[in-house]
Amino acid sequence: MQIDGAGRQQRGHVLLIAGDAAVRRRAVQVAPSANLAALGVLPASALLNSHVPSDTTYLDGVRDPNTVLMRLRAAAATPGPLLVYLSGRLTLDRRGHGLHLALAGTTASTVRYTALPWDWLGTELAARPTGPTTVVLDLVADKSAWPVLQEYGSLPASPSAEVYGVVVPPAFAGGPQQVSAYTRHWIDQLRRSPTRPANLQLHAFAVGAAALPPGTLVLPATRELSASAAQQAPQEQVPDPRPHIHALASGGRHQEAATLAQAWEQHVLQTHGHTSPEATHWAEIRADLARMAGNYRSATQLWINAGHTRLEHQAPDAPEVLAAAAGALYCWTQLKDQAAARDSGPELVRLLRALPSLEPRLLRLTQQRLEVLEGSR
Predict the structure, then answer these.
(1) Are 25 and 143 in contact (CB under 8 A)?
(2) 196 with 42: CB under 8 angstroms?
């Protein structure tokens, strides 16, 4: 039995809270009960990332916010690790303008009396004793809550807690009552991984594979996901994240797409090595994402690097080598910044010279443009 600094026996707690289902136009956007049932088959040790003795509390179908508060307060008093999972519909108290988690039976006119004020979560967790605190969210914001959530840009729980999750916008037309994609992929990773990944890794995988609808609020923000440099490699039957990443970029969410691609590239780098074909492929994906975002400077450099890397292992006339050179050349021609084009021009010329099967005119035109740029200093 582990003992904390105050001499108390370490004990963990898992608190799973299902709020009201989010339904829009008769389509279920999130089914909290299904999410809790799926999480319930996992051992508490996997959810907590700890083997200390622990308790699990399920709150499903609760109508009284004070009942939830009492359970939350008891869980927060646990001296060991704590996981709080919340799924359901975020709504707004239109009088007090506070965000609430809708409970069973909550309506627009009864929010103040039948829903859980979001501030209560932060207040209770702020008083936590020693022990890691994790909050996982799988939520949908209704029409009243979404503008406020966009204004906040986040959904704080407690400064001392790790908060991961997603909040889907109200415009999303959901499917049948089933485990939502984010929670399902979180569970799948816990089941399939030979060693338990860190929470940030689980979150990055789930976000990358879940095909979240446009506008989804991701917590932590996707700019922070690249810090997850995971030690775990993607496992086989894991959904291919590339279609989702491409959809993000096509929808104008370029930063999210680039960050998720970078997170996946880190997994591949640590698994296969920096000069592996798999790593080069993800570098090329990032190059194309930069092109889609109009960042031709970055795209040019990434394509040039990919071309040189492929030349170390492939013939100069290999289709992948020629494709990388073509990508680099196209993006370089789109550069409006003369200094940027001048800086990357010599490397591009060196790459093109190494490709004897390349159309000679392309190398000649590239050299001519570079000479003009050099002369315009």
Answers:
(1) no
(2) no
Residues 6+ apart with CB under 8 A from 372: none
Angle at 292 between CA 271 and CA 264, to 5 degrees: 15
Handedness of CA 309, 314, 318, 320 (dihedral sign): negative
Count other C-beta atoms under 10 Å from residue 292's C-beta.
Answer: 17
Q: DSSP characters for 121-160?
A: HHHHHHT--SS-EEEEEEEEE-TTTHHHHHHHSS----TT
Residues 63-86 have pLDDT tens digits of 999 999 999 999 999 889 999 999
Tokens in use for 25?
């136009």
Cβ-based burial of 323 (10 A; exposed 0-12, middle 13-18, buried ≥19): middle
CB atoms within 10 A of CB 368: 10
The tokens describing 218, both together, are 């991701």
- CA dist 345 and 363 (Å) reads 11
Quote the CA–CA distance of 28 and 172 in Å, as a whole number: 10
Compute the distance between CA of residue 280 and CA of residue 305 in angstroms, rounded to an integer.
9
Nearest to 238 by CA among 184, 195, 287: 184
pLDDT in tens, 237-260: 756 777 778 877 888 888 878 878
Read out DSSP for 281-334?
A: HHHHHHHHHHHHTT-HHHHHHHHHHHHHHHHTTS-TT-HHHHHHHHHHHHHHHT
The two beta strands, 82-93 and 98-101, are: antiparallel
Sign of CA dihedral 331, 332, 334, 337: positive
**Residue 357 reports pLDDT greater than 90:** no
| pTM greater than 0.85 (yes/no) | no
